[in-house]
Amino acid sequence: MNKTIFTTGILLGALSVILGAFGAHALEKVLDFDSLQSFETGVRYQMYHALLLLILSNVSVLNLKSKKQVYYLITTGIVLFSFSIYLLATNNLTSFNFKSIALITPIGGTILIVGWFVLGYKALKK
Length: 126
Prior knowledge:
Blueprint (H helix, E strand, L loop, with lengths): L1 H24 L7 H26 L5 H26 L14 H22 L1
Helix pairs in contact: 1-2, 2-3, 3-4
């Protein structure tokens, strides 16, 4: 499981660099300032949590079950939070109205917060 967590952290971290570069170079000319800022927020939070996964994979204070819980919460939170922001920020570039999925963003953010609290609780309980 540690290898899976570490690999996921690597892939999500690399993807955040790719998306950050894409946003800075390709989207800069087609998005307004607020949309670009939102896109960058998604990239930043994805990177923060990718780094958390890299750290989580090497933490010895948590047992495997606790690591799995945090891993699933953080990974799900990243997908719902950051990826919904990417879609919402680029809404004007597509024919689909992604504003209909706007409630996914705060759900993803809440899952990320829960992941942090579970991590803290499990680590302090040891």
